[in-house]
C-alpha cells in the first residue's frame, strides 16, 4: 500500500511517502523552493517523494492529511467560545482564517492535485503518534506528543504495541506548552509560532535561576501526570495577537521592541521558560 501524506495550507508545508509501512521519503517544501517556513502547496515535495520511490502519482493508493476540521469546529471553536465568552470574541479574525483554509479541506487538496484519489483526514495527534511509532523499529513504546494545538488537543499520552496505539490521556487547549513557548517568542521580540527555535537557542545563554520561581507559577504540575497553565498570565486563548496579559508584564517587565538590544532580562526569562518546559515534559513522561 502506498500512502502519500501532505502538510499544506499552513506554515512549513511538506510531504512524506510510506509504502507497506516503511517510510520511503519525507521533505519540507522550503528545502526545495528555498523559501523559509514556506506556505506554498508542497508540489515539489510530492514530486521528490515519488521520485525517491521511483513511482508515479497514479500509483498512490491514499492521500492523508493530519487534521479533522469538523473536530476543530465543534470542540475547539464552539466549546471554546462558550467557555470564554465574551472574552474569546477577539479570536474571531483567527477563526475566520481557519474556516477559509480548512472547512473545505478535501476539495481543496483534490483541486491542487487534480485528483479524485481517496483522502483520509487523521486526527492531528494521531498523525504525530503514527508518524513516529508506526515507522520506528520498536515493537513497544511509551508515546508522548506535545505541540501548540491540533484540533483541540495539545498533548496525548499513549502506549504503542505492534501496529496499535492505545491512548492513555490527553491535554486540551488552552493548556498548551507550545502556545506558552510561543508567548516567549513574542515577549523577546521574535515572531510567535515561527521563531521558537531561536528562543531555545537564546535560552542557552541565560541564567534560569533569576526568573525560575516566578515562571514556575505559570505551570501547575498535577498529580495525575498532566499540567495546567495559570491562564491569568496569558491572552492567546482570547486574542492571539496579544499572547500575554498585563499580569505577565508586571512580573517579567515590558516586551522587547524589534530593534531593541537583547538585554539579559529577556535572555534570562527565555532560560527560565526553557527550564520550566523541560521540567513539565519530564513530569508528563514519568507518568507514562
From TrEMBL:
This is Carbamoyltransferase domain protein. Transmembrane segments: none annotated. The keyword Nucleotide-binding does not apply. Residues 2-286 form the Carbamoyltransferase domain. It comes from Leptospira santarosai str. CBC1416. Keywords: Transferase. Signal peptide: none annotated. One of its GO terms (molecular function) is transferase activity. The keyword Mitochondrion does not apply.
Amino acid at each position: 500500500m502506498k500512502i502519500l501524506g501532505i502538510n499544506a495550507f499552513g506554515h512549513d508545508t511538506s510531504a512524506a511517502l510510506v509504502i507497506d509501512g516503511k517510510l520511503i521519503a519525507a521533505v519540507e517544501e522550503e528545502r526545495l523552493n528555498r523559501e523559509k517556513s514556506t506556505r506554498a502547496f508542497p508540489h515539489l515535495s510530492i514530486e521528490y517523494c515519488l521520485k525517491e520511490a521511483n513511482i508515479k502519482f497514479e500509483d498512490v493508493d491514499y492521500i492523508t492529511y493530519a487534521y479533522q476540521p469538523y473536530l476543530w469546529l465543534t470542540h475547539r471553536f464552539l466549546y471554546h467560545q462558550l467557555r470564554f465568552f465574551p472574552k474569546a470574541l477577539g479570536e474571531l479574525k483567527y477563526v475566520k482564517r481557519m474556516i477559509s483554509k480548512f472547512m473545505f479541506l478535501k476539495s481543496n487538496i483534490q483541486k491542487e492535485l487534480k485528483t479524485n484519489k481517496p483522502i483520509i483526514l487523521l486526527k492531528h495527534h494521531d498523525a504525530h503518534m503514527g508518524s513516529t511509532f508506526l515507522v520506528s523499529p520498536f515493537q513497544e513504546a511509551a508515546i508522548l506528543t506535545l505541540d501548540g494545538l491540533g484540533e483541540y488537543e495539545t498533548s496525548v499520552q499513549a502506549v504503542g504495541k505492534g501496529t496499535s496505539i492505545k491512548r492513555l490521556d490527553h491535554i486540551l487547549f488552552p493548556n498548551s506548552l507550545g502556545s506558552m513557548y510561543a508567548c516567549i517568542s513574542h515577549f523577546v521580540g521574535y515572531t510567535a509560532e515561527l521563531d521558537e527555535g531561536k528562543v531555545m537557542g537564546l535560552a542557552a545563554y541565560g541564567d534560569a535561576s533569576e526568573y525560575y520561581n516566578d515562571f514556575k507559577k505559570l505551570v501547575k504540575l498535577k498529580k495525575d501526570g498532566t499540567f495546567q497553565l495559570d491562564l491569568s498570565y496569558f491572552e492567546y486563548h482570547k486574542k492571539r495577537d496579544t499572547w500575554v496579559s498585563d499580569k505577565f508584564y508586571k512580573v517579567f517587565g515590558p516586551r522587547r521592541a524589534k530593534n531593541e538590544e537583547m538585554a539579559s532580562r529577556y535572555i534570562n526569562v527565555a532560560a527560565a521558560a526553557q527550564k520550566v518546559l523541560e521540567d513539565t515534559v519530564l513530569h508528563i513522561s514519568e507518568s507514562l
